[in-house]
Write a structure and sequence with these properties.
The protein is of the alpha+beta class. The chain is about 70% helix and about 10% strand. It is built from 11 helices and 7 strands.
């Protein structure tokens, strides 16, 4: 219907344009106007054929419209021929016929539009009535479906909730410890029955399991007591192992230090030799204390200072030592004994001792983010990431037995032993960190919680 309306409107435009170009040709005898007239007439005929193919308009009106268009075309061609033959009277007469036929065509097109509008109105009215009937029928059907659905839902819900309520009651009784509740019986043959059977089996299994637990509880209690005794024994063994570590004085170290003392006594007066031997005695006296006690950071720093004095005599100017303490109050912090000395020994023997030109070791003590921080920094040969990982892996495995004595160490307490005792003492894993670059040095960082006394 919409396409027919568009076609009728196009036909009016083509007719008007054709008549205008005909008038222009008659007035000016312009060949372009004649060509445009023929073009619009062709489009007018094509539109007529489309209306015939659409099957939407009344055939009576279409036939009349086609006849009028043919008459319009014949009269227009005769007017063109008369114009070319310079017959002014015939041109005037034929143009009048063309103009009058054009008006008839316009009227027929209007009639077709009115007829189409009337048909569309009737079709819309019938469609509206049908839609109203369909809407009422749909409403009735929806209400019926809702009522039926509610009935079905209520029935299915009842059939499902009744056995579920029985299961819930039985489960509540079991949660109170009453395993003698009656079994749940379901008559329907569906998933609820499967769940009820599984519930009954579970109840019986749990009941049997609890009875078995009661029968085994006494045996487990005896085994637990046995395990506690074994743990106490293992603890005693570990303490003995730690105490044996502190008593193992490296003979290489004794030989080197005493030899240096003898040479020093030969070269100068006995005063420096006395200081040297006094530092050695202080170091030995500190090393034989119990490892399961706690000491102040000040005591540990004094022991490290004694060790540094010995190393200065032994290595001379090859190794430089610096101690930087930002806050004297930090020296009152409680730490395990023999923590700094093994780290300084590693820096001195493995870090600086393997460099021909020597190096420097710095101990930096400061407070950061609510924690006391102790850093031991050397510019020695450093170590690889793999070596650092091996150290922490040994500490994680709990290796407590000493490694073979190495030349230059006062005791055989290794860095992994230090890591274990720090973690046990402060009950935290990230208490120590090792950062090293091969060829550039090593930084050992210990973060000590700020506590007056550590239990």
């Amino acid at each position: 219907m919409f396409r027919l309306s568009i076609l009728l409107e196009d036909m009016q435009n083509y007719l008007t344009s054709a008549e205008e170009n005909l008038v222009l040709f008659i007035q000016t005898k312009d060949s372009d106007s004649k060509n445009r007239f023929q073009l619009y007439m062709d489009q007018l005929h094509e539109s007529t054929e489309k209306i015939q193919d659409s099957m939407l308009a009344d055939y009576y009106y279409i036939d009349r419209l086609i006849n009028l268009i043919d008459t319009f075309s014949v009269s227009a061609n005769e007017a063109i021929n008369a114009k070319q033959g310079r017959d002014a009277d015939t041109v005037r007469q034929k143009y009048n016929d063309v103009h009058q036929t054009g008006q008839y065509i316009m009227e027929e097109i209007q009639q077709l539009n009115l007829q189409q509008l009337k048909r569309n109105t009737e079709y819309y009215s019938a469609l509206s009535k049908n839609n109203a009937i369909v809407e009422k029928a749909n409403l009735v059907m929806i209400i019926d479906i809702l009522v039926l659905s509610c009935i079905i839902v209520f029935y299915i819900t009842y059939k499902m909730t009744d056995p579920i309520m029985k299961l819930s009651h039985a489960a509540e009784e079991i949660s109170k410890g009453n395993f003698d509740v009656e079994e749940v019986h379901v008559t329907t043959d569906d998933e609820i029955k499967v769940m009820a059977v599984a519930f009954n089996k579970m109840k019986n299994s749990v009941k049997n399991y609890i009875e078995a637990l009661h029968s085994k509880s006494e045996i487990e209690a005896r085994l637990m007591e046995k395990e506690m005794q074994n743990l106490r024994m293992q603890t005693l063994l570990n303490n003995a192992e730690l105490q044996s570590l502190q008593s193992q004085i490296n003979p290489h170290f004794l030989f080197n230090t005493l030899n240096a003392g003898v040479q020093l006594a030969m070269m100068e007066d006995a005063d420096r030799t006395s200081c040297f031997l006094e530092s050695l005695a202080a170091l030995f006296r500190y090393n034989v204390r119990r490892l399961d006690t706690e000491v102040s950071l000040n005591d540990e720093m004094n022991s490290v200072t004694a060790y540094i004095d010995l190393m200065k005599v032994r290595f001379g100017e090859m190794i430089g030592f610096q101690i930087e303490i930002e806050d004297k109050e930090i020296l009152n912090a409680k730490i395990p004994p023999l923590i700094l000395q093994p780290i300084v020994e590693n820096a001195c023997i493995h870090g600086i001792g393997e460099k021909e030109e020597g190096g420097n070791i710095t101990i930096h003590v400061f407070c950061e983010d609510g924690e006391n921080v102790i850093e031991v920094v050397d510019d020695g040969v450093g170590m690889s990431e793999q070596t650092i990982n091996e150290i922490f892996n040994k500490a994680a495995r709990g290796d407590v037995f000493p490694e073979k004595s190495k030349k230059g160490h006062t005791t055989s307490i290794g860095i992994n032993n230090v890591i274990q005792r720090l973690r046990l003492f402060y009950r935290k894993e990230d208490v120590i960190q090792i950062i090293s670059v091969v060829g550039r040095g090593t930084r050992v960082i210990m973060r000590i919680p700020v506590l007056e006394t550590v239990q």
